[in-house]
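Our consortium's second objective concerns turning raw sequence data into structural hypotheses that experimental partners can test. To show how far this objective has progressed, the report includes one record in full. It was chosen at random from the queue rather than selected for favorable results. The single chain below, 160 residues long, was entered without modification.
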Amino acid sequence: MTTHTPRPIPGAVLKELRTLDDAGRPPVPRTDDEGGAPLRCCLRHSEQGERIALLSYAPLRRWAADTGVDPGAYDEQGPVFVHAEECAGPRGDEGLPFTRAHRTLRRYSADGRILGGRLVETPDGFEPALTEAFADPEVALVHVRAVEYGCFLYEVRRER
């Protein structure tokens, strides 16, 4: 079985976003009084009392800049939670995060165009859905997104 690696927002990008986000705004750190925010820096839920920030992130734009393509009209930005200060990143090989709710897997080609999507409704449906997505040789990466708000959670890239 193929293992699919969830990718957090890279550290260098987080450093930029903690100064000015992709909408050109400085983040506003706050103490998370409740916990449970999906952190895109370390791919886990926040704990009560942690300092977090909600900021705007353009994942396809960032990927496109790294790969030299123009995402065109598919460029979008949206809200993501991150630790307000640098963190250690993901804790280790814990599998795919944020799978205990319905998610959409949005597939993209190497030229940054949407190739389709799929709703995943159960935790055990993620690996098969990713395997199915990458069975299409045109798929270069997949965004995992929250259904309820459409927010970007993380990406999975084609293994080379």
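The partners drew two points from this record. The CA atoms of residues 12 and 56 lie 16 Å apart. The radius of gyration is 15 Å. Both points have been shared with the crystallography group to help prioritize constructs.
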